[in-house]
Design goal:
The protein is mainly beta and 201 residues long. Helices cover 8% and strands 29% of the residues. Strand 4 and strand 5 form a beta hairpin. The chain binds a DNA duplex (16 and 16 nucleotides) through strand 8. Keywords: DNA-binding, Nucleus, Transcription, Transcription regulation.
Length: 201
DNA sequence: CGCGTTTGACCTGCGC
DNA sequence: GCGCAGGTCAAACGCG
């Protein structure tokens, strides 16, 4: 299963009743945590949560501006709210950060991009190891962190950092597949509504 | 042989 | 300045 995902700046996932889970039975998007722009504030810490308030509030979703991907200037501000209060507003030169929590039996979702694992670390308050991945495309600096939820190992927290400056290796395949389902059983219209392709800035 | 994974060491930022 | 925690590096290793 190869699908382009939200790290690509051209895609935005919406989770509504029409949402077609691109990972079908394998994944259950229970918490989507997006913060594409500074104007997006959905909860205290900028997360979009679909279920009841989750114990994953320490997973913050922050906004950076990508150094690539055509999103323009490289400096934005980010603010991080934690349980004890707000921290200073920081300035960084990085890309988008997108975190989402999924219920999955497997740790690493195949999002269509090719990832190289470069680190593994045990983190505080989590008995499970955190894995670090880089996009294996030479000029692409997108990173991905994958860890099991410390409170519920059935959930996987995936954090993407940065924006791909190239298309997914499976992008062409995916487009062909979607178009070929024009009158098929699969609800491709819903999918295309769910995955909104936004115009370049 | 090339590529990806593993894993301990090292680096860096932050709080005290 | 020190210690801790998170993030990254790179050599060793395994697999196709």
């Amino acid at each position: 299963m190869n699908m382009p995902q939200n790290p690509n700046p051209n895609f935005t996932f919406y989770s509504d009743e029409n949402f077609v889970n691109p990972f079908m039975d394998t994944y259950d998007f229970t918490n989507l945590m997006f913060d594409f722009d500074e104007g997006v504030n959905t909860t205290n810490n900028g997360l979009i949560e679909e279920e009841t308030s989750s114990p994953t509030s320490m997973v913050s979703s922050e906004t950076f501006t990508g150094e690539s991907g055509g999103s323009g200037n490289a400096i934005t501000t980010l603010s991080r709210n934690e349980s004890t209060g707000s921290k200073e507003v920081e300035t960084k030169e990085m890309g988008h950060r997108v975190a989402f929590r999924t219920r999955s039996k497997i740790d690493v979702m195949d999002d269509g991009y090719k990832w190289r694992k470069y680190g593994k670390k045990s983190v505080k308050n989590n008995t499970n190891k955190r894995n670090y991945y880089k996009c294996s495309s030479e000029s692409c600096m997108v990173k991905k962190r994958v860890e099991r939820d410390g409170d519920d190992a059935a959930y996987v927290i995936t954090t993407y950092e940065g924006v791909h400056n190239h298309e997914s290796p499976s992008h062409v395949y995916y487009n062909d597949m979607v178009l070929s389902y024009d009158h098929g059983n699969w609800n491709q219209h819903s999918l295309r509504q769910s995955i909104q392709i936004s115009p370049p800035p």
